[in-house]
């Protein structure tokens, strides 16, 4: 085809297509679809995560039975609920912080920054998508744990999803902050991994004995989740103040993490190290 023919064809295409700005709903749909494709096309990684989580739970359960015996049995339900929330938290936190770290290493971070949405909204939606995937894998882990330990727990789906989801949102904020620091300082993986062990302390914090621990990530949500799954308390049976604290803590930590991420990426751009690695 001649140059004149090509020009005419491009002109007719340009004339027939009206560019439209993508919406956040379309962005969310595409990010969720991308996460689904990664899950389907690379199932070995997801299955490996489930196996590793169950392996460590097996060590905890069978090792604890040999050492503590009856004492472990008495607190087994609490351990199962706490481990379920821990797998959720680690999955949400590491997915978003590692994802941002990978973007830095691959050199694709600047592409996200230049999108019409900005990098922070894209990263937030990717975090939400990974949270959905983590919920699915953690549900499998929970089912296997209940079968192994022969523990009878109530799983009111609505209550568990709302309470556990809001609890993990605060961790998502920590993941955002960690991702922002990664953009600035690059190689800090060891420090980020250390925080995952801190989740164990937060989940086991006595939220109803010490009032101030309610303001920490995971602590209050862990206590509510224990009541929902062990005592059978439904969402509408919690005190309004308990639910307000749960929502408030999730919103505050997510907001703080988002602000830290924004400030860190702006500073990285000013220093000219955004795409460096």
Automatic annotation (TrEMBL):
This is ABC transporter permease. The lineage of its organism: Archaea, Methanobacteriati, Methanobacteriota, Stenosarchaea group, Halobacteria. Keywords: Membrane, Transmembrane, Transmembrane helix. It comes from the Archaea. It comes from Halosimplex litoreum. The chain crosses the membrane at residues 42-63, 75-96, 131-149, 155-184, 191-208, 243-261.
